[in-house]
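Our preliminary data section would be incomplete without showing what the modeling component actually yields. Below, a chain of 208 amino acids is followed by its predicted structure, encoded as tokens that our downstream tools consume directly.
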Amino acid sequence: MTVRAGAPHPHVEFAMIRSVTFAALLCVCSWAPASAQYLPAPTKYTIVTAGRGYTQHFYRDGDTVLVDLQMAKSADRHAIHLRTIVDAPTTTQLSWDPNDPSVPCNSVATGDWGDPFDFWRQMALDDSIVPTEIGKDSVNGMATTTYEKTAPQGSIELWREDRYGLLVKAVMTLKGHAPVEVFEAKAFVVGAPDSAVFDVPARCEWKK
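Predicted structure:
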């Protein structure tokens, strides 16, 4: 991976893309069912998500998180493979390119690391607006409840995992356009990942 002069760091670039995506979702869907009861979010897990042009692995073991992001090359973006280790309590982060040792490691004092359990909370802005519960479904082996919210500009359909409330799939349909799958969780495993995934290259200095 080559970081272009003057271009945002890939982690920042992806955060901007994700923010725009979820801003669009928020415009259509600013609600959260108040009646649903879920188990507390686990702190040891592996989650794999995929969306338009990207795949992301989240590995968490207590306070330590490793995010592996791969973004495909497009007309306006080079291909990206980035790994970021995060100290969850402080959100201190260190990122590196696992394929190109010549790319400097990048340290961030604090910032949003893309906690997948925040995806739903980011949309919980107005409990008075209640969505329509469509029914039950299964997404890649995960039992889910499906919701739909409509607005003048379009609709959004959301699949929420039944145990922990993890948002595992989102399909957005803007008026006059075909449905677009924003993202989908391909796997969700509760339990500590292999400790080797948290290894940091010797060239990088990791300070929590």
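The longest helix spans residues 10-28. The radius of gyration is 18 Å. Preliminary results of this kind motivate Aim 1 of the renewal.
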